[in-house]
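> Could you send the Methyltransferase domain-containing protein prediction when you get a chance?

Sure thing. Input:
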Amino acid sequence: MTIPRTGARAEPGSFRDPANRVFHLGDDVLRGLDERAAREWRALTATDFFPPLLAAGKVCATEPVDPAPATVGARWAAVLRHERIPFVSHPYEWSFAMLRDAALLHLEILRAALPAAFTLKDGSAYNVQWRGAEPVFIDVGSFTPARDGEPWAGYRQYCQTLLYPLLLGAHLGLDFRPWLRAQVDGIEPDQMRRLFGGARRLLPGVLTHVHLHGAMQRRNARASTADVRSQLRAAGYSRELALATVRGIEKLVRRLEHQPAASHWVDYQRTCAYTADDRAAKERFVAGALADGPRPRLVLDLGANDGRYARLAARHADYVVAVEQDPAVVDGLYRALRAEGQRRILPLVMDLADPSPGGGWRGVERASFADRARADAVLALAVVHHLAIGRNVPLPEVLDWLVGLTAPGARIVVEFVHPEDPMARRLLANKPEGLFPDYRRAEFERLLGARCGITRRLDLPSGTRTLYAAVAGG
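Output:
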């Protein structure tokens, strides 16, 4: 592959480890390594454990670039090229089962590395991404030689961004997503300690990883890292003990389970108002709109529910991101996709009226949903009325948002639910009369046509819903 010579852009979320930095250059994802990191990379590739992880897809595909392109800067001793993840997501957009699988992948990799005298510098949930329903570890720069007497440096990160959120869900039934969205470094032990007092201290994993962990942090608050390592070596802490600790955490994580409360949306395809004729016509329309033009690289299915149309879209596109607000629905969809070995549909939990903002350092360390979503096609099926009526978002702003999620010339497939539709009437019944005078088909069509070129329209047989296919900016 030829590397472009201009336009390298540093990844905003990769600045925390000065030994290596990730860059984007055209469609390539590159990682610059300093002298020490380059030596460790060469040692890593010579181990018996790392090549099998690459071959199994558990670690993102990585290869050296020689010669290194000057566009990433002269300071790097070596440059690697990684596979490009089709869509970068954040842990606060994952379901419980997704977070648990990400946590288990971390431990599996660490368990393989320790006997070969390697460890992971980090334990962050952000070091995992997804190929559809398959987790993949992306932070190759996190591998480093292990030394006897040194604890896993990533343990605190692992607890705060993976284990603690899982404990919240499994033991207390709490939604971990707001916690992770609010704090890029995850949940602090002191925050957890306040939630797990009294008899809750005895719940699996809590005493060791919340209370004892927090006590150790407080006791060593003024000690240097070197002092702590010296104390551990003197106490006989070894790589074998570290490996036993990892196995214990893995056993705990596998036992953690959370069943989200049932909701109306879990069985929506059976209970919704669509007739069989409506559903068949809708599927034909969506398939035709996606097949009309170049094959989309990325499709967003907004309000995806159980993934019916995401699966349809996957027949016509390289990759589909299925966004749904209900965690129980997304968890069920993820488990089904994982069982199928599906690698082209990524399910995410997100409130479309409150999509993920930018976060972390300067608000760009973790990119917002809008900044990540430059889709070639967007499906907005049975979602506009929920935003416009249910959440009081003006129709012009709904359409501006949809267009803003697309790449130039992208296709938009959108469904307008008429005011007389049973679902629209149900939503309107909870609102003051006359609050939405502009919520009419003619006005929606006018607004859509002002922003896009409408290429198709179809009234569903029931007569209260209309589908539109449009080209953004047309």
